[in-house]
Amino acid sequence: MMSDRAIGLIDEQHCHKMLREMVSIPSVVNEERALADYLKGKLEDLGLETSLQTVEGDRVNVIAVRRFPDDGPTLMFNGHMDTVPVCEGWTTDPFEPVVRGNRLYGLGSMDMKAGIACAVTALKALVDSDAPLRGALVFTGVVDEEAYSKGAKALLRTEMAKADAVVLGEPWSGIGPGATPLGITGKVLYDIDVRGRSAHGFSPQLGVNAIEEAAKIVVNLDKLDLRNHPRFGQGNYCTLKIEGGYKVYSVVVPDRCRFEVNRLLVPGESVSSAVEDMRKLVRSLNLKAEVQVGTKPPFYESFEMSRELPIIRIFSESFREVHGREPEFQYSSSITDGNVFTGEGGIPSVHIGPEGEAPHQPNECVHLDSLLPTMKIYVEMASKFLA
Fold this sequence. Notes:
This protein is α+β, with helices and mostly antiparallel strands. The chain has two domains: about 270 residues, Zn peptidases (Aminopeptidase); about 120 residues, Alpha-Beta Plaits (2-Layer Sandwich). Helix content is about 30%, strand content about 25%. Helix 2 runs antiparallel to helix 4 and helix 4 packs across helix 10. It is elongated.
C-alpha cells in the first residue's frame, strides 16, 4: 500500500521533541507569535511553501502547503496555537514539560499541541516517503480558538476556504467519551439591555427598577422556546454576566441593567430565530422597562455531516486499519474551529487527536502512547484522500 512506506518513516522522536518544545513556548491566547515563528521554521525545514497571515496586530496564522504535480483535492490539517491562561492548582511549571510514566504534563499539551506535533510529523513522513499523491497537502496553525476563532475566520479569507476537507487535531480519540463529532452545536451570546426609570430609593414606586425587571427575564429563561433535535437533543442556556446599579453608592432606583446569556444552538436554529425567541419571552412578561435584545461576538454556526462524505468514510477506513475497530461518533455540545470551517465555510471536518486529561484545568497532560496511532491515522487519511 502507498501508505506503508510513509508509516514506516514516522519519526516518533521528532513528534515527542516538537511536543516538548511547543509546551515550553508560552502561547496563551493573544500571545501566539513565538509559537507561530517556531512552526514556520519547522514547516520550512520540511520544504513546504510556508507563509504567515496577519490576523490582527502581531497575531498571525501559519500556512504551509505541499503541492503535487497532478491536480486533485486539498486536504488541510489544522491546529490552534493558543492555549487558555494558566489557572490555579498546577503542581508543576505549566511551561516546563514533565514526563511521568505515559503522561506528559504541560499547558496545552493535550489541547492541542500534541495534535499539532502529530500533524507536522505525519506531514514529514509523507514528504520523506515521496508518495505519488495529487492535489495539495496543507498544514495551518491558527490563533484565537480559545476566544473568538479570529484565526479560523481569517483563514476562510484565503485560498484555504477552498479546501476539500480539514482534519483538526483536537483531542477526540474516536473512542468512548472521545467519540469523533459528526456534528457540533452552535452558539449565540445574547446581549440584553434593560432601561428603567430612576427615582429615590425610598420611593421606588415612582421609578422602574431595571435590575428587578432584568431579574424577571432571568428567572423565566426556562420558558425560552429551545428546539429539540433528533440527534443533538435540546440546546441550553447559561446566564454569564449581569451589570447594573450604582458605581458610587447612592440610594437611587437603578435605571439601567444589562446581562449576557450564552445559548447553544442546534441545527435549524439561527441568530435571528434565537433573538426572536428571546423577544417573545420578554413580550410575554409585560415588563414596565424597555428591553433591547441584541447579540455580541462570538457566534458559531452549528453543523452536522453525513457518514457518507468521502473524508468521513476515509477516516473510518483509516481508523479501522490502525485500531482494528470502527470509530465511534457523536453529536457534541461544544464549540471548536470546526464550527467555522464546516458550519460557516462548508468544509467537511474530522476531529481526531491524541488522548489526554484535564484540558482547561491544572495539570493538563497528554497520553504519549496515543501519539503514534494518531500519526498513523493522519498518514492513512492523507494517502487515501490524495491518492
